[in-house]
Amino acid sequence: MKVSRQIVKQNVEKLLISNKAIEKLKENEIMNISQLCEKSKIELRKMGICFKDVRDIEMSLQLAGLNLKNSNN
């Protein structure tokens, strides 16, 4: 599936994830979806994002046809 460039340029706030997760991403200078896709689940957990929020991030990305780094879905 070809992913629109518009999607990856969008702010992480567009994802259906908690405000706490969004704040953690911003603290780690992850502002847009393309930057987020360059991170793995392990990297997100090391940033202090809880398991549920990592799962929500992963599901939101999948709905847009995207994945985290090293995800095999």
Question: pLDDT average, as an integer?
Answer: 91
- SSE-based structural type: mainly alpha
Work out the radius of gyration. 11 Å
Count of helix runs: 5
Largest sheet report: none
Order of helices and strands: HHHHH
Task: Write a compact overview of the structure shown.
The chain is an all-alpha fold.
Features:
single chain; 73 residues; mainly alpha; 5 helices; 52% helix; 0% strand
Could you explain the architecture of this structure?
By secondary structure, the chain is mostly helical. It contains 5 helices and no strands. The mean pLDDT is about 90. The chain has helices at about 5-10, 20-25, 35, 40-45, 50-65.
Topology of this protein?
Elements: H1 5-9, H2 19-27, H3 33-37, H4 41-46, H5 51-63
